[in-house]
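Internal ticket - ligand job 320, nicotinamide-adenine-dinucleotide:
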Amino acid sequence: SRFIVTGGAGFIGSHLVDYLVERLRAEEVIIIDNLSSGSLVNIKGHLEKGVARLVEADLVREGEWVKAFRDVDIVFHYAANPEVRVSTVEPRIHFDNNVVATFNVLEAMRVSDVKGIVFASSSTVYGEPSVIPTPEDHPLKPISVYGASKLASEALIQAYCELYGFKALILRYANIIGARSNHGVIVDFINKLRADPSRLEILGDGTQRKSYLHVSDAVEATMHLVASRLGAARGAEVYNIGNRDWVTVTEIADIVVDEMGLKSVEYVFKRTTPDGRGWPGDVKLMLLDTKRLESLGWRPKLSSRDAVRKAAREVLGKEH
Ligand code: NAD
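stdout (structure tokens):
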């Protein structure tokens, strides 16, 4: 089969490319990425061996990249600006790179008659859920522009399924962590502790509690769904992808400090909102109900806590 992975030079995207190349032995993998947060290092091996091809392009503007969609079977649309915090101060960046880019990808698929899409959505579409663990049919009321941009993208995909016979998997990921990640709480803590090993500034009150899934589990879950559901899907199917448990931000700090071999680090909690969030638009409690995914026979291998430890070791370069 032939695949396109948008954002394939990024964190999750490059792990997906690894899977398509190494495990599925795909005929062709085309990566479309503008290398804004992704990196050539993540995909260099595949490019050198000629088992993947990079189209360096910005999806916000239509261009030559549209031609790459000819004869493709499935598009994995993972390009986006994933920085929830940035979306508060620069909403247009998220509207362009998440909503406009998704629209352009759907149009490229439509004109090339490509029907299958797997979309990287996010737990942030739920906003502040009233039910935890949160199931897929919970009301969708995002509290960040990032979450809103993912929800708008989901809506466009739904409409393309109705109108043009697309088949879609809309995957709402919890926090995904692991090697090659260059953002998020673990990377932030490691960078701060490298600069000053005696104190750690923690955004919010540290009681934020969320579910974390290691990227290896996230890719396995994704490909399990592609294999079992994408062909059979009538229109769009929505799945939560996350862990069955959660950890607090302070617990993450403890694990990172331990893995760095540090002692007596002073935690300084930085209050940015009256109710102890990390930033405006930060969801304090996030645990997804993953029964729909698990009913198809998939279970995560690592708990949230084990995933955090493994990811910290990988980011520190102790594990690959
Ligand atoms: P990432 O920043 O590593 O990957 C995004 C990739 O998209 C990068 O390689 C970047 O260069 C590329 N990109 C961005 N804008 C582009 C544009 N306009 N044109 C072409 N390429 C562009 O982030 P990630 O964490 O790997 O996230 C991948 C996807 O998963 C994103 O859609 C993100 O919103 C979603 N997601 C991530 C998480 C998480 O915890 N990491 C959770 C839920 C959803």
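Auto-summary: The chain has ten helices and 14 strands. The first strand starts at residue 2 and ends at 6.
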